[in-house]
Amino acid sequence: MRVGFVITTLGFGGAERVLSLIANRLSYEYSVDIIKFDNQKPFYEIEKSIKIINLPALNGGFLVNLKKRFSKIFALRKIFKSSKYDIIISFMDSTNLLCLMANLGSKQRLIITEHSHHSLLSWKWKIAKRLLYPLCDGLSVLSRSDYQYYSYVKNRSVIYNPFFGDIDGKSQDRKENLILFVGRLENIKGCDIFLNSLKYCNLGNYAVEICGDGGEFKRLKDEFSSDKIKFLGRISDIQSHYKRAKIIVSSSRNEGLGNALIEACFYKVARVATPTIGACELICDGEDGLISDDFSPKSLAKKLNLVINDENLRDKLAKNGFNSRAKFGLENIYQDWLNLINKAIK
């Protein structure tokens, strides 16, 4: 089977990491190409057997600069025809629309993937997806909420993001009084909500590490950096931080499915989150994590104080999260992907 993945870039990001993991796993048994729209080196490790095809970088919004957009469509169409893939898998919504248009009139099978929640869509995107998404042969979404929303796509499946790393539980013995934030420093990720919540927390001897980069990095660092709060920027070896941490906070304003909340399970890190769709999908409040009542810093601080001050609660949340990790294992997620692919190519 020949598989072609399509994504804008293979830089730092959740969707990029998921594609890398799934493409690598498929490459053990099948022929895999990755098509992307830049010339940058992939941030995540890619198996040597995988062919990476770089198309010219063409910037601009979907409805802006039609000439460049049509150039992308024609370039994709040419590759699709010449490569004769058994299945094409597109990552991210803008790439989904480009691939669907490039594949018009073709008999090649195409799976598209969603990595953000539908509530973020503008009316233009809603119309575009309603018109084009039914043309795909399969759709992968991250939550039951999105599964219901995209009811106009027949072959769809909820497939969680996979984890790949240390899952034996032996590296969890030396925990520190450390609270992590892991994610891009952009408004939607809500790091400012977390940092402002700390004003209402009794941190005691806890330290805070902010692992991530983005447009708000300098502003947040200038405003909140202190002896207790360190801004580490982009981290490639995030596992070493998970192994040390006791608590992780996800304070997104909107999140389809947060990789950090999945990864934390494997390292016995207690999870505290704002009430996004993704967090509610992954956490059973009070059992394997805590979810704040709303998106305010005070509400988040209320939950965060509970795990800081109650060691028994913190250990319970971390243990129950760890016990739920199997559903995020790479092999289980890989089987989910194979099932969706097999349905699409029948």
UniProtKB/TrEMBL annotation:
<feature type="domain" description="Glycosyltransferase subfamily 4-like N-terminal">
    <location>
        <begin position="12"/>
        <end position="152"/>
    </location>
</feature>
<keyword id="KW-0328">Glycosyltransferase</keyword>
<protein>
    <submittedName>
        <fullName>Glycosyltransferase</fullName>
        <ecNumber>2.4.-.-</ecNumber>
    </submittedName>
</protein>
<dbReference type="Pfam" id="PF00534">
    <property type="entry name" value="Glycos_transf_1"/>
</dbReference>
<dbReference type="Pfam" id="PF13439">
    <property type="entry name" value="Glyco_transf_4"/>
</dbReference>
<keyword id="KW-0808">Transferase</keyword>
<dbReference type="InterPro" id="IPR028098">
    <property type="entry name" value="Glyco_trans_4-like_N"/>
</dbReference>
<feature type="domain" description="Glycosyl transferase family 1">
    <location>
        <begin position="173"/>
        <end position="322"/>
    </location>
</feature>
<dbReference type="GO" id="GO:0016757">
    <property type="term" value="F:glycosyltransferase activity"/>
</dbReference>
<dbReference type="InterPro" id="IPR001296">
    <property type="entry name" value="Glyco_trans_1"/>
</dbReference>
